[in-house]
C-alpha cells in the first residue's frame, strides 16, 4: 500500500490522483463554513463496524444468528455508553459465504462505507480470501471463525480472532478426555477438504499423546450425498467414531449410520458444527442419543449457568433449549455465536485502550489489541475466561463436551484453558504496520 | 472504413478505462481492477461460445488452472511474478489442449456435459491435494511475494494504482488480440463453424483443428485471467474452480452480447454493479427478506434468455451499428 511503483507512481512525486484529491479537499475546506462543527462531529460520531455477514449461501443459518447476537451486543454496549462515549453503528454487507464476494465486501466496508474495522466472518475460505484485502487497506479485521487460519501465522498483522478458539486448540484440548472416557481406538470420518483435514492433522497426534490412536481415517468427498458405501471401511475394533460432517447431508449421514449399526454402535464423538441450527430431536437423529459433542458454548441451559451466561442468553433471545424465544423451531448456532458478543467487547476494550479516534489510529488499535493478555469471565465474556496470544492474534479458552441425554445436550466435561494451548507457529508483531 | 471505426472505438474504451483511474473513488477503483481481470475471463469464454458456437460449462477449470499455476509456483517455489504468470497461462493452455482433444469428440449438449465433468474433476483435485492447495480454504500470497523488480523499477501489485494499471494492460492486450482474431481469416472460419459446421467442412476447412485452436486460445486467455487474479489479489482457492465460476462468464457474455468484442466488458461491469447495488437496495427495501444476490444473478439470466438473447452490444449491432465487431 505505502510502497508505490516507481514507474506508475514514483513514491517521491505527487500523483495526479493525489493532486486531484488535494484540490478537492482544499476546495471543501474553503467552502465549508461548518468545518469546526465537522471536527466536533468526528469526536461524537458513531464507531462504524463493518459486519461481513453470511446472510445467504451455505453459511446463512450461522449468519442469521451472528447478526442477532451482534445486534444484541451492540445494543448492550451502546446502552452502557458505547466506545469512548461514541455509539457503535453496524454496517452489514452480505458476502454470500463466497470468498470472492467476501474480499470485495471487505474492500467495500473499508473504502466505501469508511468503516473503522471489519468484523464477524465465520467460514474459513471467506476469511482467508478477505485477509489480503484487510492487510492491503490496513483495516483491522476481527473474525469469529474457529478456523486455524489466523493462528497459522499465514495471514497478516491486521487479522485477529480474539473471541473464539481455533479448531487446533479445540481438538487438542478434548483428545485426552476422549481417550480417557470413550475409548482408545478411534476412527475418524471427516469431509475431504481443509476443515476436515485440520481435524485429521491435529486430532491424530493429540489422541496419540493422550494414549490412544487413530486406527482409520475415512475422508468423504464433498460431493457425496449418501455415505453407506464408506461405513464398511470402519474397522470392527473401533471404540470411538469421530465425525465432523457438515452441510445439508449431515442428516442423511446420521440416518445411514444408524441403519448400518443398529443398536450395537461404538461411542460417537462429533462436532456440533454438524448440527448447529438443527433441532437435536429432529426425526432421524435418534441414533445420536448417548453420543458426545463438542460445544464452544452450550446450546441448552445448564444447571450451573453463571449470571453472565443467563444475561447473555436473554439479551440474544434464546430460550432454555437454545432456540429463538417464541419460535422453538428456530434453533440457534449457540456453540459459535457467543464469539460475536465477546469479539465486539474485545474491539471496545482495544479501542478504549488505544484512545481510538478514527482510521488514523488503526495502527494503535492493532497494537492495543496485541497488548491484551486475557479476559475475565463475566458479562462481556459469558462463555468463560480466556488467554489471548497477542503475537499469534488468537484466543485460547475452555471447551465443552456435551452428551445427548433425553433429547438435550448436557455438558459433562469442561476443559482447562491450558489443555488447548500449543506452540505458536507465527508472530504477527514482527510484521510492519 | 469499418476497421477505422473499430480501432478508434477499442482504443477509446482503453483510454476511458485509463482515465477512470483518476476520477474513481477508492472503492470503485478496486472494483474496476477486478472487473477488468474478470472481463478477460469473459473475453476468453466469448471466443469459444460467442464466435465458435461451443457452449462450455467448464471454463472455471481454465481460470483455475491459471490461478493455481501462478499462485502455487509463487507460494511453494518462490517464482518471480512474470514467470508465475507465464506458468499460469501455460498450465491453462496445456489443459485446454488436452480437454479440447477429448471434449471436441462430442457436440452440443454432450460437449456441455463433458466440459462440466472435467471441470468438476479439477475442482475435486484442488480439494484432494489440500496439502499443497489448502483446498476450499485456499492460500494467501504474502504481500512481499507480490513485488516485481525490473530494470531498477519496482512494482507492488498489492498497491491499488499499480494493480489497476496491471489489470488494464492485461485487459487492453487481450481486447486487441481478440479484435485481431475476430478480424482475421481464422476468426472468420470460427464464425463459419458456428453458423454451419458441415458447410465449413465441405469448403475444405479443417473444422476440428480450428475448433481445437479456439479451445486452446480461449483456455489460455481464461488462464491469463486466473493467473492475474491470483497475483493481483493475493488469494488462491478452490471456489474459483467450482461450477459457479463456469456459469458466471456465460452470464457476463450473454448480458453484454455474445460474439461482440466489447460485450464481455459491459456484461461484467453491469453484472458486478447489479449484484453490488441490489444487495444494498434489497437490504434497505425489504430488510426481513433475506434475498440472495445470487437470486439476482439467476433472475438476470432468465430475463436475458427470454427477452434479450443477443445481449446489449448484440442488440445495438443488430439495429444501429452493424460494423461492431
UniProtKB/TrEMBL annotation, chain A:
Gene3D superfamilies: 3.40.50.2300. One of its GO terms (biological process) is amino acid transport. The keyword Amino-acid biosynthesis does not apply. InterPro entries: BCAA_transport, Leu-bd, Leu_Ile_Val-bd, Peripla_BP_I, TAT_signal. Residues 46-405 form the Leucine-binding protein domain. PROSITE patterns: TAT (PS51318). Transmembrane segments: none annotated. Signal peptide: none annotated. Keywords: Amino-acid transport, Signal, Transport. Belongs to the leucine-binding protein family. This is ABC transporter substrate-binding protein. It comes from Mesorhizobium denitrificans.
TrEMBL record, chain B:
It is found in: Cell membrane. One of its GO terms (cellular component) is plasma membrane. The keyword Acyltransferase does not apply. Its main location: membrane. CDD domains: TM_PBP1_LivM_like (cd06581). It is a multi-pass membrane protein. GO terms for molecular function: branched-chain amino acid transmembrane transporter activity. It holds the Pfam family BPD_transp_2. This is Branched-chain amino acid ABC transporter permease.
Amino acid at each position: 500500500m505505502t510502497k508505490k511503483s516507481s514507474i506508475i507512481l514514483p513514491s517521491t512525486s505527487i500523483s495526479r490522483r493525489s493532486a486531484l484529491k488535494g484540490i478537492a479537499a482544499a476546495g471543501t475546506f474553503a467552502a465549508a463554513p461548518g468545518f469546526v462543527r465537522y471536527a466536533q462531529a468526528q469526536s461524537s460520531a458513531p464507531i462504524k463496524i463493518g459486519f461481513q455477514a453470511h446472510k445467504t449461501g451455505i453459511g446463512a443459518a450461522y449468519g442469521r444468528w451472528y447478526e442477532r447476537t451482534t445486534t444484541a451486543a451492540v445494543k448492550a454496549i451502546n446502552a452502557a455508553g458505547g466506545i469512548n462515549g461514541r455509539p457503535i453503528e453496524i454496517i452489514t454487507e452480505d458476502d454470500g459465504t463466497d470468498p470472492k464476494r467476501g474480499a470485495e465486501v471487505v474492500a467495500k466496508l473499508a473504502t466505501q462505507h469508511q468503516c473503522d474495522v471489519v468484523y464477524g466472518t465465520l467460514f474459513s475460505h471467506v476469511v482467508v480470501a478477505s485477509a489480503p484485502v484487510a492487510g492491503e487497506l490496513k483495516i483491522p479485521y476481527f473474525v469469529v471463525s474457529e478456523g486455524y487460519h489466523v493462528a497459522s501465522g499465514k495471514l497478516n498483522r491486521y487479522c485477529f480472532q480474539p473471541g473464539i478458539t481455533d479448531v487446533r486448540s479445540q481438538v487438542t484440548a478434548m483428545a485426552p478426555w476422549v481417550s480417557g472416557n470413550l475409548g482408545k481406538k478411534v476412527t475418524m470420518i471427516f469431509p475431504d477438504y481443509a476443515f476436515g483435514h485440520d481435524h485429521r492433522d491435529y486430532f491424530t497426534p493429540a489422541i496419540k499423546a493422550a494414549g490412544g490412536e487413530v486406527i482409520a481415517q475415512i475422508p468423504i468427498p464433498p460431493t457425496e450425498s449418501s455415505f453407506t458405501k464408506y461405513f464398511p471401511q470402519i474397522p470392527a475394533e473401533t471404540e470411538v467414531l469421530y465425525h465432523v460432517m457438515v452441510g445439508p447431508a449431515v442428516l442423511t449421514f446420521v440416518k445411514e449410520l444408524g441403519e448400518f449399526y443398529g443398536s450395537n454402535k461404538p461411542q460417537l464423538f462429533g462436532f456440533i458444527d454438524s448440527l448447529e441450527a438443527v433441532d437435536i430431536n429432529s426425526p432421524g437423529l435418534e441414533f445420536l442419543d448417548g453420543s458426545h459433542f463438542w460445544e464452544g458454548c452450550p446450546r441448552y441451559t445448564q444447571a450451573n449457568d453463571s449470571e453472565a451466561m443467563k444475561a447473555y442468553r436473554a439479551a440474544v433471545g434464546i430460550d432454555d433449549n437454545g432456540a429463538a424465544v417464541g419460535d422453538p423451531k428456530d434453533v440457534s448456532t449457540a456453540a459459535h455465536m457467543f464469539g460475536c458478543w465477546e469479539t465486539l467487547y474485545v474491539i471496545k476494550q482495544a479501542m478504549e485502550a488505544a484512545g481510538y479516534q478514527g482510521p488514523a489510529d488503526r495502527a494503535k488499535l492493532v497494537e492495543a489489541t496485541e497488548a491484551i493478555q486475557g479476559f475475565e469471565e463475566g458479562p462481556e465474556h459469558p462463555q468463560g475466561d480466556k488467554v489471548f496470544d497477542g503475537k499469534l492474534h488468537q484466543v485460547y479458552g475452555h471447551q465443552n463436551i456435551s452428551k445427548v441425554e433425553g433429547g438435550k445436550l448436557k455438558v459433562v466435561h469442561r476443559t482447562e484453558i491450558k489443555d488447548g494451548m500449543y506452540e505458536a507457529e507465527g508472530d504477527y508483531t514482527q510484521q510492519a504496520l | 472504413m469499418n476497421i477505422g471505426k473499430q480501432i478508434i472505438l477499442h482504443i477509446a474504451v482503453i483510454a476511458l478505462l485509463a482515465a477512470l483511474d483518476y476520477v474513481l473513488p477508492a472503492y470503485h477503483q478496486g472494483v474496476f481492477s477486478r472487473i477488468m481481470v474478470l472481463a478477460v475471463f469473459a473475453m476468453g469464454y466469448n471466443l469459444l461460445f460467442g464466435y465458435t458456437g461451443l457452449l462450455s460449462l467448464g471454463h472455471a477449470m481454465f481460470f483455475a488452472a491459471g490461478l493455481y499455476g501462478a499462485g502455487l509456483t509463487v507460494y511453494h517455489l518462490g517464482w518471480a511474478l512474470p514467470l508465475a504468470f507465464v506458468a499460469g497461462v501455460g498450465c491453462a493452455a496445456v489443459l485446454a489442449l488436452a480437454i479440447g482433444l477429448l471434449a471436441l469428440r462430442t457436440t452440443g449438449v454432450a460437449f456441455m456435459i463433458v466440459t462440466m465433468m472435467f471441470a468438476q474433476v479439477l475442482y475435486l483435485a484442488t480439494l484432494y491435494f489440500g496439502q499443497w492447495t489448502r483446498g476450499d480454504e485456499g492460500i494467501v500470497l504474502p504481500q512481499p511475494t507480490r513485488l516485481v523488480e525490473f530494470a531498477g523499477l519496482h512494482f507492488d501489485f498489492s498497491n491499488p494504482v499499480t494493480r489497476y494499471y496491471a489489470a488494464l494492460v492485461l485487459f487492453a492486450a487481450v481486447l486487441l488480440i481478440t479484435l485481431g482474431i475476430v478480424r482475421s481469416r481464422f476468426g472468420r472460419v470460427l464464425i463459419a463453424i458456428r453458423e454451419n459446421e458441415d458447410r465449413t467442412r465441405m469448403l475444405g476447412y479443417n473444422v476440428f483443428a480450428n475448433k481445437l485452436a479456439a479451445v486452446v486460445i480461449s483456455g489460455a486467455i481464461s488462464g491469463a485471467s486466473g493467473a492475474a487474479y491470483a497475483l493481483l489479489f493475493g488469494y488462491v482457492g478452490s471456489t474459483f474452480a467450482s461450477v459457479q465460476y463456469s456459469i458466471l462468464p456465460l452470464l457476463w457474455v450473454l448480458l453484454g452480447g455474445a460474439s461482440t468484442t466489447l460485450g464481455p466488458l459491459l456484461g461484467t461491469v453491469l453484472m458486478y454493479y447489479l449484484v453490488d447495488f441490489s444487495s444494498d437496495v434489497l437490504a434497505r427495501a425489504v430488510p426481513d427478506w433475506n434475498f440472495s444476490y445470487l437470486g439476482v444473478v439467476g433472475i438476470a439470466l432468465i430475463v436475458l434468455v427470454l427477452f434479450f438473447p443477443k445481449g446489449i452490444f448484440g442488440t445495438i449491432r443488430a439495429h444501429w451499428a452493424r460494423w461492431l465487431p
